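pinned: reference chain
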Amino acid sequence: MRKLSIVIPAFNEERSIAKLLDIVTQVPTESIGFSKEVILVDDGSKDRTAEIAERYSGVRVIRQLNQGKGRAVQAGVREATGDFILVQDADLEYDPHDYLPILSAISDDNMAVYGSRVLGQSLKQGKFHLLRGKHPQQGLGPWLAGVLLSLITFMVYGRWISDTLTAYKLYPASILKSFAIKTHGFETDHEITAKLIRHGVRIIEVPISYTPRSVEEGKKIRARDGFIALGTLLRFRFLS
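pinned: its structure tokens
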């Protein structure tokens, strides 16, 4: 049986972390041939996020000073012992039950699978929906940023990825661990995408569900992160 390592970077998520871990630990990945380990990296939270997570016997908690999401992900990746690594945000925007279709899409051990919110929403919309792939609760700005980043990725790398901003990305552990990651914020996702493409790793997408949360509910990504993501894609197109 192959193993899935679920890395959860978390910062001040005490309102949602217990509910999330209840779901994550119960997802029946074993039914499709994957055991799992859960690694939560507390990125210097000022609340009870780590304390709550430590109550779960099946969850390994790593504490670090606040260094950004990217560094938290890297810390989890270093500790991961699975064949594949999936990063799970600590909020409840994504449904962990989507692990099953993502894992089921694996056909070999040297491919990556991205869960696409755009494809998930498109399945619910008509063929000629004006704002294709936009969730009804998603702001126009974030949706447009996603479209732009998909276009830039296609123009610069020649690969169409409908949802480069998705938080559900499943990586082959051996390949991910071989990368020397330079970034430390939300843009780390785009650095990894750039390096996967440059290394010839096949990326496929599967539809997933998504429930956007607002800034008031704890959403941390901001408009400036979109510009940083754009710069990251361009930077790692040419940086060796």
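why pinned: Residues 70 and 184 are 4 Å apart (CA to CA). The radius of gyration is 17 Å.
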